[in-house]
Structure formats: structure tokens, C-alpha cells
Amino acid sequence: MDIEFQLTSTPITSTAGLAFIGDHLKETKLSRHLSSVCPHVRKSGRIADIDVAKSMIGLLCLGKPDFDAIGEYRDEPFFTRSLGLSRLPSPETLRQRITCWPEKTRHVWRDFNIRQLRRNKKFLTEKIHGRRYAAVDVDVSPMDNSDTKKEGVSWTYKKFDGYAPIFAYIGPGFMLNNELRPGSAHSNHEGTGQWIAQTLQMARNITDAPMLFTADSGNDSTDNVEILREQPNTDFILKRNLRKQDPAEWLALAKEQTGEENYEEVDIGARAWYGEEDVVLPGQDDVPEDSKVKQRVVFRATERFARPNGQYLFGDEINIDAYWTSLDWTPQQVQAFYQRRGTSEQYHSELKSDMDLERLPSGKMATNQQVLDLAMIAYNLLRMLGRQMLETGLVPGRKARSRRLRLRTVMQNLMYMAGRLVRHARRCTLHIFKGHGWALPALALARSPD
């Protein structure tokens, strides 16, 4: 080998970006709030709960959700220093303490998350058809935990054993809320309506902008529509589950409203017609006709007579995309906006793949919920750092107008940036190589008054 290897006592770190995470976590209100819900007998040498929480968040920001991973940093001074830890917990202590946290700690994580998002609320809104909205997207994304005997793991609709958590995102990919559920739980699991109302209240605690709530057909129910109708300053798009309704009737209605010749070419073998209708909410059979509650429904009826490759079908296929909505947008605008929510699948991927959180670390469901809540904080901190780096205008190959960086990009280039820790005159300085592509934006971010 041409390069000679030697050991050195000079503190060198490969995780210089943790300094930015520690800066966000030094909030005293977080520490006080956590102490108030985790009462304990004071013992000398006992590691503080806030140190346990920061340690786990640090690991999650590095894509290491396993408790045992904390052992890798036992002899590395920078991990402890960057996160502001008094002491670094052992893997056993990390696991046991998180398992012992009461359910009330979920309020601690959510309150902190709200405060962090509120400080960066300028990133959460966008102008859509002439009005500025904070878009809130809700979706279920199963997590594969096959070949385990963890509590709550069961058969999911994705045809594997795992969990079926529900997530809410606000703006371009910031996580607003989550709930870990058994794999067999339906999207519209008991309590979903209350969870949606709680999520929208959390969003209103962050920003005064109008909300635009979007969810797929798994959450289609009269109760949810009524909850959304009652929400102040909130519009919604909720995809309908047409169940046993005849698609041909919807297609005929669309052609009648727009004219058979006024269609949209979807591809070489399909055409689409748009329509709208005020529909009576289900479950009002005993209500007088003139008192029944109606809600606007917009829809796209697609008639396919050939496959995209040009091969003709024996019989035409009809597909209906229908949405409950409170908006006055055209059906085309509603359809286009709903299709954009496919981006949420990328958010799930970043959580499960980039942060390696597909398989949760504990066998107990309550502990895994705590880890998922801490992961929400880590996820948003990484997302914010990515957005703030873009704001510097110095990120190689990126422009400030880009709305987000993938978490993997932030982790590889910022979290795992190498540095040398120098102590001199009671001060600590982190030296990073000026030739690193992200060195200048990192320095600009470190010197930012925010």
C-alpha cells in the first residue's frame, strides 16, 4: 500500500455536522419540559434524560437508529461535545431509559417540534393559484419489520409483516405529526379523525397561513369530511373511495358536462373528461332531503382504449379519480395538485432509507413510538439544515430557489463532514478542510445570526 497508516491522539471527527444539531438542541425549555414529565429520584452519577434524548437524536441524524451504535462514540470527544452532553449513555442505559419514559413525553417532543418549525415557518408556505397556503399532507407508510416478534408487528396491506404508521407533513417535507400503529390497522383506524384535528391544530400553532389538507382514499369517511369542514381557515382535498359505484355513470356525467369532444389526451391510448357535482354525504338516510349536507366533488373520468405502447384493449377500461373538496378550483387544478402529493412517498423513503429507520430498534411498541418521535425531530433538523444551506447560495450545483435537499445529501455532505477539534485558550475550534465542496456553505451557516 502506498499510503502509510498511523494512530494519532489529535481529536479528529468524521461527523462535524453534529455541531449544527447540537446548536438546535441546546434550548433550555426542552430540558425543563422533559424534566417536568420525567420525575425521578436524584442520584449522583445518573445520566440526565435530556442527555439520553440528545444522544438518540444525534444517532438518528447520522442514520444509526440502533441503541448499540452509541458505543461507537464512547471514546470520541466530539460527539459528546457537539451535542452538549454531560455524559454519554451506554447502549444499555439508552435502551432502558427510553423504554421507561412515560407517554407524556410525546407532548415534549411535539412542543419542541412546533417551536422549531415556527422559527422556520417561512419555509412552510407556498403560493398556490393566487393564495398562500401551508400544505398539510397525511399518508400511511408501512414499515417492514418481517421476521421479528416485536409488539404490534402484523400483516400489512403491502403484504409483509410490519407496522403501519401514519404521518403528516407540512410544507416541502417537514414532519408535523406521526402515530405508530399495528401493521393490520386500516388507514382510517379508530381515532384517525381526532388525530387529523390534532394535527391541524398543531399546524395552526406554527403558522397563521391558511391550511390546505390532502389525504388519499384510505381516509375517506363522512366523519373525516365533517371534521375537515369544521376546521377554521382550512381547505381540503380528500380522495373519494367510490366503492361499488359504477364508473360508467361517472364517465357519462363528465361527458355530459364538458361535451364528448372536450377531452384531455392522457397518453396515446387514453382520454380524460372532467366534471363536478354536489354530493350528499353518506349516512344521512333518515335526514329530510332539504336538510341533507352536501359537499362538492370534482372528478376525472379516464377512458382507456389502448395501452401506452399502442396495443388495443378488447374492452375499454374506465378509471375515476374523485375528490371531496372545499376549494373553488377547477377539477383540472384539483387533480394536478393531488397528483403532486406523490412527493410524500419520497419523504417516507428519506425517513426509512436515508435515516435507516425501516426496522425500529425495540421489541416494545411504546418504545418504538418514542424513537419515531425523536426521529421526527432529527428528520426536521436535517431538513431545516438542508434548506438553510440552500439559502446561503453556496451549495455546489444547487440554487437557492430549490425547495429542499434530500436527507441523504445533507447527511453525506454535512453530517459526515470531517473536521479536527482544536482546544486552545479555553476555546474549542473545529477545523474543516477548505477544499471540501460544502465547507463554504457550512461556514456561512455557522456564522449566520439565526
TrEMBL record:
One of the Pfam families matching this protein, by short name: DDE_Tnp_1_4
Residue ranges of every copy of the Transposase DDE domain listed in the record: 4-435
Transmembrane segments: none
SUPFAM superfamilies attached to this UniProt entry: Ribonuclease H-like
InterPro entries: RNaseH-like_sf, Tnp_DDE_dom, Transpos_IS1380
Domain of life: Bacteria
Protein known as: IS1380 family transposase
Native source organism of the sequence: Natronogracilivirga saccharolytica
Lineage, highest ranks first: Bacteria, Pseudomonadati, Balneolota, Balneolia, Balneolales
